[in-house]
Write a structure and sequence with these properties.
The protein is α+β, with helices and mostly antiparallel strands and 218 residues long. It has a single domain, classed as NADH Oxidase (3-Layer(aba) Sandwich). It contains eight helices and four strands; from the N terminus they run H-H-E-H-H-E-H-E-H-E-H-H. The chain has a four-stranded antiparallel sheet with strand order 1-2-4-3, with helices on both faces. It binds the ligand Cc1cc2c(cc1C)N(C[C@H](O)[C@H](O)[C@H](O)COP(=O)(O)O)c1[nH]c(=O)[nH]c(=O)c1N2. The ligand Cc1cc2c(cc1C)N(C[C@H](O)[C@H](O)[C@H](O)COP(=O)(O)O)c1[nH]c(=O)[nH]c(=O)c1N2 binds next to strand 3. Homooctamer. It catalyses: FMNH2 + O2 = dialurate + 5,6-dimethylbenzimidazole + D-erythrose 4-phosphate + H(+). Its EC number is 1.13.11.79.
């Protein structure tokens, strides 16, 4: 199957216009068929040894969201103490989640023992199952953008809070908690860039030929 130039352009448009969304969610239900499509896209991610270690927990219950939001507030307060001066003020002013505003939460997990103890491709790099689950997150994120759905990844919550709220057993790793929903608009630049946290690094500085450069610029 060949991808036509128009289809290629649609893929790049999706990649470059994807955003991490925290503040623009609107109160509009995500239809079941749309949710099914983005989850199926996530499920078609690459995975080491084809172990497909992920599961997806859909969260609509407002009590669950409230508990996870509380977990965010606690972790966020602790995180703020790690920054100093102007950086701390800047950190505290950022909106870093949309847990209660987003109509859906999706928790992505990783079952590290899903296909047994020896996994093709994971023998010398045991973390490959975790990376595979992150590939599922990225597939979901891009598929959601193609459906004009915003996604925001919230990692400022301790795993135990998510584990307890969603009854996730100890042997299952929490990979991501995603806020998902329709949005007023997609910003053209990342929030962290818009609000002066960090700029986008020049792509040319990230690309090297043949070996690591002598003076790798930040
Ligand atoms: C693993 C991981 C974890 C997080 C994020 C991303 C990823 C990949 N990001 C979103 C992050 O800030 C964002 O992707 C970058 O700032 C770039 O912006 P765009 O995603 O291009 O809009 C994120 N954002 C946020 O507001 N709260 C968070 O806890 C996190 N956590």
């Amino acid at each position: 199957m060949t991808i036509s130039p128009e289809e290629r352009d649609a893929v790049y448009k999706t990649i470059f216009s994807r955003r991490d969304v925290r503040r623009e969610f609107i109160d509009k239900k995500v239809p079941d068929d749309v949710l099914e499509r983005i989850l199926l896209a996530a499920h078609h991610a690459p995975s080491v040894g084809f172990m497909q270690p992920w599961d997806f927990i859909i969260v609509e219950n407002s009590n669950s969201k409230k508990k996870i939001k509380q977990g965010f507030l606690e972790a966020h307060e602790q995180a703020a103490t790690l920054f100093e001066g102007e950086r701390k003020t800047q950190y505290q002013a950022l909106k870093l989640e949309g847990i209660e505003e987003a109509p859906l939460g999706i928790c992505v997990t990783c079952d590290r023992s899903r296909t047994g103890s020896v996994v093709l491709g994971k023998t010398v790099k045991p973390e490959m199952d975790l990376f595979s689950a992150v590939c599922a997150v990225q597939n979901l994120w891009l598929a959601a953008r193609a459906e004009n759905l915003g996604v925001g990844w919230v990692s400022i919550v301790r795993d135990e809070v998510i584990r307890e709220t969603l009854k996730i057993p100890e042997n299952i790793d929490v990979i991501a908690y995603l806020c998902v929903g329709y949005v007023e608009q997609f910003q053209t630049t990342p929030d962290l860039e818009r609000f002066g946290w960090l700029p986008r690094r020049d792509a040319k500085k990230a690309i090297h030929f043949e070996s690591w450069p002598d003076n790798n610029e930040a």
